[in-house]
Amino acid sequence: MKIGLYFGTFNPIHVGHLTIANHMVEFNDLDQVWFIVTPHSPFKKKKSLLEDHHRFQMVLRATEEYPKLKPSDIEFKLPQPNYTINTLVHLEEKYPDHEFCLIMGEDNLKSFHKWKNYELILKNYDIYVYPRVSEGKVDSQFDNHPSIHRTDAPIMQLSSTFIRKAIKEKKNIRPMLPEHVWQYLDEMNFYKK
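-> structure tokens emitted (193 positions)
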């Protein structure tokens, strides 16, 4: 089975995430996409992050009706701060019959050369890149690289940051979230302060 790994804090998961993941699994050679909920990114400040179990719960609720989309809390059990290469090695050991690849936005590809062991990732894993509107250029070493597959997934201008800010400003963002996620956020009063 070929699994696309979609890493993120998913703070919160929104319809943009689901649209991209679904496009990746339906229009590429992937059997499933796993949402890897990251406990703490080395590149992000933690203060605005909901607790890990709440973000995992939202991904679980968002994906429950999509059999090819799966939530994963695998990184919660790994030493922190964690790096993608460690997660990939751990998953290969745990699921030797699966083939894993990465899913990332073009904005992440622009900083990919800063990732820990990025050369090793490129050598051993395919990377599926979806378009993003962002500043800067992709490093030329990634142009026409055999491990990098650019996809024509829809460009999603929706972000978790925008959603958190809108909730704080008491805007109705319900159409931007899967229904079960919206209900969970509303019940828990998240992002309102």
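Residues 2-155 form a domain with the Rossmann fold fold (CATH 3.40.50.620).
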